[in-house]
Structure formats: structure tokens, C-alpha cells
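Exercise 7.
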Amino acid sequence: MKVKIAPESTPVRPTLPDTGKEQPQAAESKRIRVALERDTLVLVPGQPAVVRVTVANGGRLVDHFPLSVEGVPEGWVQRPEPAQLNPGERTTVALTVTVPRVPASRAGDYPVVVRARSVENPAESGTAAARWTVLPFAQTALSLAPTRARGWRRAAYRVNLRNGGNALARY
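Solution. The predicted structure, written as C-alpha cells, is:
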């Protein structure tokens, strides 16, 4: 007999949590440029991956540019301190991405947007799009109860099979 068992928890694709702060709708800016070292990233749950982001200030004022990542849970990404850039200056910073090895970190493709927002004018931001792929992992638990048979010819058992991975599994 084949049985399909879904991961322990099957959430909807993760979204950014509500911060409780009202942020202005960001307009794509020509003065803030964001470029990614690569626009695809393969993520192995439990192992950190680094993506380099270049932020450029094409404006006339000194500004700070905090980075955010949209499309994955906030806890997956370790962000650097906001970059302070003079006019015409650029810098490259590293984002460390670690997908937790839990069933809620569903395997699959995640469209991601990396955003650098101006501190001086929060309505202004620059973005770069990417696709991050979370690889599946398998983790199965099997238990049998009772662990010892009582009786001479027959015994009744309860089998519990649990998929602790992040993708569907066939057993």
C-alpha cells in the first residue's frame, strides 16, 4: 500500500509579517540602484547561503539605505547594517540566508524582491528581483504501540508515521 503524507504543517507560502508600522508605498527610484550578484539562489535547509547585493546612490545627498527582502519569512535573512552612501557612491554587502530545517520551510521556488529604501525619503526605493529555490529534505518518524505484544496468537498495534520533511513523501 502506498500512502502520501503531507509535511507536518502545511502553511500557505510565507509572507512578510505585519510589523505594525505603516510604511509609505515605495516608488521605484532612478537614484537608488540595486543589483544582485546572481538572480537565482539554491537554498539547502539548515545551511547558510550568501548573496551579495550592490547598492548605489545616484542622488545628490548622502543617504542611508536599509535592505529588506520580500517573498520569504523575515527570519530567514540576516541583514547588514544600513549602508551610508555619498552621492555617486556604491557598496556591496552580503545577505546571509538560512532556511530553517523545519516542515514549515516548504520546498519550492520563491520569487524574491530585495529592496533598498531611502532613510531620507522612505517613499523612494530601488529593487532587484530574484528566484530562490528551497530544496526538499526528508525526515520520517515511525512509531509502533504497544512496543511489546500481549497475547499468544494475536496482537493489535497502532502504527504512527509522521512526515517531518518540507515536501510531500510517499511511503
